[in-house]
Design goal:
Layout (H helix, E strand, L loop, with lengths): L1 E8 L3 H18 L4 E5 L4 H7 L5 H7 L4 E6 L9 H13 L4 E7 L17 E7 L3 E10 L7 E7 L2 H18 L6 E6 L7 H13 L6 E6 H10 L6 E4 L1 H14 L7 E5 L7 E5 L16 H13 L3 H17 L12 H10 L2
Parallel strand pairs: 1-2, 1-3, 3-12, 5-10, 8-9, 8-10
Antiparallel strand pairs: 4-5, 4-11, 6-7, 11-12
Helix pairs in contact: 1-9, 1-11, 5-6, 7-8, 9-10, 10-11
The structure holds 3-isopropylmalic acid and manganese (II) ion.
């Protein structure tokens, strides 16, 4: 039995998660496994009413799950940073979700801003470290609010932190088994970040010795931005630091057709770890309740969940169905799909 904690969240989050669940239920019937879905009322609306984002009890309850399916949090009436730190980053840290897995895959029929690039040219996966770097929340102010104010925001890199991420990326590259060749590219900035990224570089070289079947490469992050646009076919799997991973995966999202199709997973792959899968896009308040938002990213996040839980055939069915459905859609942008949110979910179910 597959037990999933479900957090729809705010805005269009619940709408896209409803479609993802519809698809998970349909695929569970076809693949003969049982699903238990437990919903949690955690969102910005509750925060506005009660001042609570998430309770310690809820964290303790969620910790008992291996997988959480999450929509989005965020409301125009809540200052930026509150829900991000209080919910998303809190869960990443509390559950030590040290992998942020973000596939960048162009499906046939989906429009990309890249001229002359085809689906076979754009099919790679970014493994973003998810617990360190400038996200660690280390820093402070001196003389705040005065002309001599000083602010620090320290990037933290540890051997343990980068090694576990790099090793997982090598394992993932091996399992993905790209017919064009297994290749893992480290993306960092060793020419400037001569301490933290030197640690990443040395660790990458050390771990690589255990994976002679995986070709390795290195790109500075600025060059990576050029290559992602100019020659994305060079990438199979990218492993990178938290901050750079945040930035390049937004570039990846737009290349593969936008936030409507970009899926992700915050993964703790350790025994008993709790992972959380989410569409990369936000709560899209302008589209809330209109049945116009694209649920494909949430549906693909469900497939990522299944893949990590070991339901490989079910995950593949969803991928194959999405591949057919996106070709029928006019666009991947909200309100321009040629279908409603619920119709897209229905089509994915029909094509499983
Ligand atoms: C993401 C988001 C988050 C991040 C924000 C909302 C804290 O941009 O998941 O990429 O920076 O990691
Ligand atoms: Mn981001």
């Amino acid at each position: 039995m597959l037990k999933i904690a479900v957090i729809g969240g705010d805005g269009t989050g619940p709408e896209v998660i409803a479609e993802s669940i519809k698809v998970l239920k349909a695929v569970s019937k076809l693949e003969n496994f049982t699903l238990q879905l437990d919903e949690f009322d955690i969102n910005g609306a509750r925060y506005v009413k009660t001042g609570t984002i998430i309770t310690d009890e809820e964290i303790a309850t969620l910790r008992k799950y291996r997988s959480i399916l999450f929509g989005a949090v965020g409301r125009p009436d809540i200052a930026p940073g509150i829900l991000e730190r209080g919910f998303l980053l809190r869960l990443r840290f509390e559950f030590d979700q040290y992998i942020n897995l973000r596939p960048v895959k162009l499906f046939p029929g989906v429009e990309t801003p890249l001229k002359n690039k085809k689906p076979e040219d754009l099919d790679f996966v970014v493994v973003r470290e998810n617990t360190e770097d400038m996200y660690a929340g280390i820093g402070g102010f001196l003389h705040k609010g005065t002309p001599s104010e000083v602010a620090t925001q320290t990037a933290i890199f540890t051997r343990k932190g980068c090694e576990r991420c790099i090793r997982w990326a090598f394992e993932y590259t091996r399992k993905r088994n790209n017919p064009k060749g297994k290749k893992l590219t480290l993306v960092a900035k060793t020419n400037v970040l001569t301490y933290g990224h030197d640690l990443w570089w040395r660790t990458f070289q050390d771990v690589a010795k255990e994976y002679p079947d995986v070709k390795t490469d290195y790109n500075h992050v600025d060059a990576c931005c050029i290559y992602m646009v100019d020659s994305p076919e060079r990438y199979d799997v990218i492993v990178t630091t938290n901050m750079f991973g945040d930035i390049i995966t937004d570039l990846g999202a737009i290349l593969q057709g936008g936030l409507g199709v970009a899926a992700g997973g915050n993964i703790n792959p350790d025994e008993g770890g709790t992972s959380m899968y989410e569409p990369i896009g936000g709560s899209a308040p302008d589209f809330t309740g209109k049945n116009q938002i694209n649920p494909i990213a949430a549906i693909l996040s469900g497939a990522l969940l299944l893949e990590q839980e070991g339901y490989t055939a079910a995950a593949q069915r969803i991928q194959n169905s999405v591949l057919k459905v996106v070709q029928k859609m006019k666009s991947q942008a909200a309100a321009k799909m040629g279908f409603s949110t619920t119709e897209v979910g229905g089509l994915v179910c029909e094509n499983l």
